Amino acid sequence: KAGVTQTPRYLIKTRGQQVTLSCSPISGHRSVSWYQQTPGQGLQFLFEYFSETQRNKGNFPGRFSGRQFSNSRSEMNVSTLELGDSALYLCASRDGIQETQYFGPGTRLLVL
Amino acid sequence: KNQVEQSPQSLIILEGKNCTLQCNYTVSPFSNLRWYKQDTGRGPVSLTIMTFSENTKSNGRYTATLDADTKQSSLHITASQLSDSASYICVVTQKAAGNKLTFGGGTRVLVKP
Lengths: 112, 113
Known about the structure:
The complex is a heterodimer. Chain A contains no helices and eleven strands. In chain A, the strands form two sheets. In chain A, strands 2, 4, 5, 6, 9, 10 and 11 form a seven-stranded mixed β-sheet that branches. In chain A, strands 1-3-8-7 form a four-stranded antiparallel β-sheet, with no helix packed on it. Chain A is mostly beta strands. In chain A, a hairpin with a 7-residue loop joins strand 9 and strand 10. Chain B has no helices and eleven strands. In chain B, strands 2, 4, 5, 9, 10 and 11 form a six-stranded mixed β-sheet that branches. In chain B, strands 1-3-8-7-6 form a five-stranded antiparallel β-sheet, with no helix packed on it. At the A-B interface, strand 5, strand 9 and strand 10 of A face strand 4 and strand 5 of B.
């Protein structure tokens, strides 16, 4: 099976802009989670979608939103970008609740 | 508050030597604990997963232990190789509450020749 794919891999934006990141899970996986990773904060959970419904949400402002489509592909949107949003954004998929998460390569976002 | 604390934050070891990483958690109720390896610029890759009843799990030169009574886990790397240079992340799943995952801050390991 193909692994988790994320697009784009790298992105440069300026403050105030918005950005949309995409994640395609492993075929058959219904759960997609998003994480933000920065050198100082480590991995921070953003949200998890399961069968098109948001199941869990981390402690991020409303500028961070996501959605999941019927084919389990997911998108994450960040509006009104701030410098502090510069990070590696990781997507992970899993089949069942107890299953191991498989991570994608990430999208590295730089906000100037 | 559910937390996962890892120590040390970073570690430098010589190639061929062994090392042990620690993970202490307060997540409750506990479902399982995973160790991930993350190479620089890449997504984490699962190394081991242990449930409440498992005390040890191996994956090649990586051996994880779990003491559910003291809520401690360790990851032992045997005969380290240069490719072991990475961050190692401990993740605990909370039973119920949507099986929420709590991540440790990671231990950055650098293996020197």
